[in-house]
Design a protein that fits this description.
single chain; 67 residues; alpha+beta; 4 helices; 12% strand
């Protein structure tokens, strides 16, 4: 993903994603480690962030997903 596009999107922490989905931070960490959730890393931080685009993909009902 292009850096400028990432910077123009809202970025979420793993904790924010856990709160949005009502799961634990451990669960979100597992999703990230297994590749179920794509993350980006900013040059100024070693902590992963989740883009708005990825959050929207996660929110899409399974029967509406094109894959």
């Amino acid at each position: 993903m292009e850096y400028n596009k990432i910077m123009s999107e809202k970025l979420y922490t793993q904790k924010e994603i856990a709160d949005i989905f009502g799961v634990t931070l451990v669960t979100v960490n597992k999703w990230v480690k297994t590749g179920k959730v794509k993350v980006v890393y900013l040059p100024t931080s070693s902590r992963p962030r989740i883009t708005q685009e990825e959050l929207d993909r996660l929110r899409t009902p399974i029967d509406k997903k094109p894959y």
